[in-house]
Amino acid sequence: MYNFEFEKPTTVAEAVAALSSDEAQALGGGQTLLPTMKQRLAMPEKLVSLTGIADMKGVSASGGTLTIGGGTPHKTVADEATAYPALAALASNIGDPAVRNRGTIGGSLANNDPSACYPSAALASGATIVTNAREIAADDFFQGMFTTALDEGEIITAVKFPIPEKANYQKFEQPASRFALVGVYVAKYAEGVRVAVTGASEEGVFRWTEAEAALSSNFAVSALEGLSVPADGMIGDLHGTSEYRAHLVGVLTKRAVTAAA
Q: Does residue 87 contact residue 72 with C-beta atoms inside 8 Å?
């Protein structure tokens, strides 16, 4: 590791001010940023820790919406998001205990790793990402691998999840990292079904609209018969070919529907 400045503000306003310089980088749980810095793939001159901002932590439910502070660790989501069981179950299976106790939902969404779990939950739930400056619909937030709609210095302060009638997340794990080789999140609402896929596409998390249309008409595994995603544009690496990942999307979607129903 190299020398850098470190600040730990206690309010969002202080954090925004500290991030105003070009050399500053926000630090959530540090589960991605710190290893990246150790490898010299990122070298910010100043880290601004968000872990001291109490207003960015906590889980609450009201009026059919679950609100989670951006600085809330995965372990807290797993324990306290009881109003949205599928989301709590997803959080309980992220990484290992160290990652779950340190990593935060805001950090995960801001990083937008193509194999992370939370982006699929946010997209399938039609969540709203709340920042210090505005509110962003999940459909507009994710813009490709490690790319989001966040501006420089913008902080995710909370995430609002509409609670669905039924939901389930199925993850085919890469056993070493416990990231999703492929993950599928299915959420059923009165107005229709949303299906989001992570870990599979070179473009990052995406909605499988063909499956959504079929399941909105008939929320049953039989509605998915004959449907598949093309292998073109799927990730291919030493863990699995693009064809394998495309196949897994269909398998995991069926499992998610079965478990939710």
A: no
Pick one of 3.30.465.10, 2.30.42.10, 1.10.357.10, 3.40.250.10 as the CATH number of 54-162.
3.30.465.10
Within 13 Å, how many C-alpha atoms sit on residue 157's CB side? 17
Specify the pairing of strand 46-49 against strand 128-131: unpaired
- The yes or no reply on domain 5-49 and CATH 3.30.930.10 is no
Structure tokens given for 169: 């997340």
CB 91 within 8 Å of CB 78: yes
At CA 209, angle to CA 205 and CA 214, rounded to 5?
A: 135
Return the structure tokens found at 192: 């229709």
Helices (H), the chain: 12-18, 33-38, 74-80, 85-92, 97-102, 105-111, 118-125, 138-141, 209-217, 242-260
- DSSP state letter for 150: P
Read off the pLDDT of residues 145-199 as tens digits, 9 standing for 90 and up. 999 999 999 999 999 999 999 999 999 998 888 899 999 999 999 999 999 999 9
* Dihedral sign for Cα atoms in the order 208, 77, 44, 152: positive
* CATH code for the structural domain at 166-260: 3.30.390.50
CATH 3.30.390.50 in the chain, residues?
166-260
For 220-229, b/e burial (b = at least 16 CB within 10 A) is: eeebbeebeb
| 54-73 pLDDT tens trace | 999 999 999 999 999 999 99
